[in-house]
Design brief:
It is a single chain. Helices cover 34% and strands 20% of the residues. With 613 residues, it is of the alpha+beta class. It has three domains: 148 residues, Creatine Amidinohydrolase, Chain A, domain 1, CATH 3.40.350.10; 145 residues, Creatine Amidinohydrolase, Chain A, domain 1, CATH 3.40.350.10; 293 residues, Creatinase/methionine aminopeptidase superfamily (Creatine Amidinohydrolase, Alpha-Beta Complex). The strands form eight sheets. The protein has a six-stranded mixed beta sheet with strand order 4-3-2-1-5-6, sandwiched between helices. The two termini are 48 Å apart. The mean pLDDT is 95.
Amino acid sequence: MNELSNNIPSRIDRLRELMEHEGITMYMIPDSDPHDSENVGDYFKCREYISGFTGSNGTLIVMRDMAGLWTDGRYFIQAERELEGSGITLFKMGEPDTPTIREFIRSNIHDGDVFAVDGRLITAKAGREYSSIVSDNHAVIRADADLVSDIWTDRPLMSARSVIVIDDGLAGESVPDKIGRVRDKMRENRASAYVLSRLDDIMWLLNIRGRDIECTPVAMSYVYMTLDETCLFLQDAAVTPEAKAHFDRNDINVLPYESFPEYLKKRMPIDGDDENTENTAQFKVMADLKATNYSVYDIIKKYVVDITNPTEEMEAVRNEAQMKHIREVYIRDSAVLTRFLYYVKKAMSRGETPDEYSIAMKLDEMRSQIPGFMELSFPTISAYGANAAMMHYEATEDSHSRLEPEGMYLVDSGGQYLGGTTDVTRTIAVGPVTEEMKRDFTLVAVGMLRLADAVFLEGCTGRNLDILARGELWKRGVDYKCGTGHGVGYMLGVHTGPQGIRYRYAADRAETVLKTGMTVSDEPGVYIEGRYGIRTENILEIRDVCVNSDGHFMGFAHLTYVPIDRDLIDTRYMEPHDIELLNTYHAAVRSNILPLIEDENEREWLIRATEAV
């Protein structure tokens, strides 16, 4: 049992005491904030505080006689370790015998019971589903229960750091033009108002960035927009003189963040009273119920028009000015990671055994020297041997392993820059490796390169293409328990939508057509618990290929240019075209990266590392 989990049973006991006092049968603690953010600030890490599980995706449910935590395949190994001794049962999402959260609620909430949650921390879509399940079972839902605050006595304050203004040249489009595009969507949907809660979308819309969530340049905020006004709800401490001038120039009214719920209530018409709005029957509020919290939804539910945030796809399709900055950022970022791989290889060849944490800090320091660097895009995953089998493993100063002169080392890292967000993974040999390791590494590289080489017709989604990355692994009965690709933000979250590459069909998840100007990751892998993990990840841009009588053909172009370790390649598992793809890619790595590397030893190593196989 780790030190944190020693405290977990007592925290859950205290939570159960509060539940008993409030008459609550089942209490849910999601891993979220009021904006459905993937990563949350320290103030909102309630699930982590109560359960001890530190992964970015997890939901805790506590009852009087049991507690369970649901998480996805990226975190199964990590969750098993972190929940050990806590008394919390791990529910592995997506596994055949694991009930979904909704199925669990349906089976365990009964006549007269009370299901409770903090409505700010679940989406409106999820809240409506939970409410329906609870009602069907003749039970009651409470969406105003913040019990954790009574337990977490030293809870951190909510971050309120100053925002950064992004100039139009960097953004590629002015704020009035973006707002104009959104208002066109409002008119299409006959909406009088638009409520926008998702932080990435707000930052993109208003050409600002924030520093309220680690590794994600966003500010805690809401937007309420009508056809003739835009109101931004922002914490007072975040508004600098430069930001105020920016908002004034763009006719944006700035109001206190905490005033949003009451403001919203005042803007909703009372039946029969149209003093401040158009006729009540015609008043409609446009909102994305997958990205609006349940407490906000409760205010606007009589008038809501559910629509996917138009800002999401607008942000995802990059203009040429943005793509120019992104390409430049990726070249510089790739050069630093290439130098880092040389550093690790050289250290191991000298008989050194550096530890995972210290070399992660070395890479972070190297990346921080790149012009325009703001912060990391996620904590660096620096994993040797069996640790790499945990997809989101994080070495710390107090808990890490040393690299030994055998096997493989995996590093997944990225940065936030003025001009782009990066994400790249490489796995390298740090000594002798097994034939099995070489086979798996080669098949992963083949999958990554085949997907990147795809040509597809306009109208395809990522589900049409995922097989290109998994095909050779599936033939051997091997799979990785995550998607193959995710969108990457532009100075925003490293995992964004709506585009993605995954094979699994989900009835409740919309599939997004891939469009020119989108960027997406390409990251197949193999993860063998207790032994090793392999991932090779590039970021790709979607580009036009040709248009003819058969349609509009599109494809990918690499943004990432980092060598793929030839020491781990076994050409017996490659078709001739796979070898050609690898050699062509390495030639591009050399031509793009060599001009940025000054050290002669690093240059010589890069030339050898990119030689044709």
